[in-house]
Amino acid sequence: DGKVEPGTAVPVVDGGTEGLKGHVKVIWPGTKACFECSMDLFPPETKFPLCTLAETPRTPAHCIEWAKILAFPEAFPGKSVDTDSPDDMQWVFQKA
Asked: Is 63 in the active site?
């Protein structure tokens, strides 16, 4: 009949980060909105104009993006930043 049996429901935990922001959400089948129904609640992806990053970074987020987008490729041609690599992230942190 499409109804969720309360004793068999398994919660789903969704979480993630983007830049310096993060979220965690617990979804209980049949009692809370489904994941797709709550997509519009996520914050929009943050993007900065490249001219701001290159010429006048004013915030810590600008400096981090500058290090990732502009400085890293210049220092390591042909390699992209691996955000799962402690060495790459330490380099970005130090450079920013």
From this structure: no
pLDDT digits (tens, 9 = 90+) for 4-21: 677 787 888 888 776 677
* Mean pLDDT value of segment 42-60: 73
Amino acid residing at 61: A
Give tens-digit pLDDT for 22-35.
878 888 777 767 66
DSSP label of 32: S
What DSSP state is assigned to residue 89? H
Catalytic residue selected from 34, 37, 51, 63: 51
Amino acid at 24: V
| Contact residues for 51 (Cβ-Cβ < 8 A; gap 6+) | none
Q: Answer for the pair 34, 27: CB distance below 8 angstroms, yes or no.
A: yes
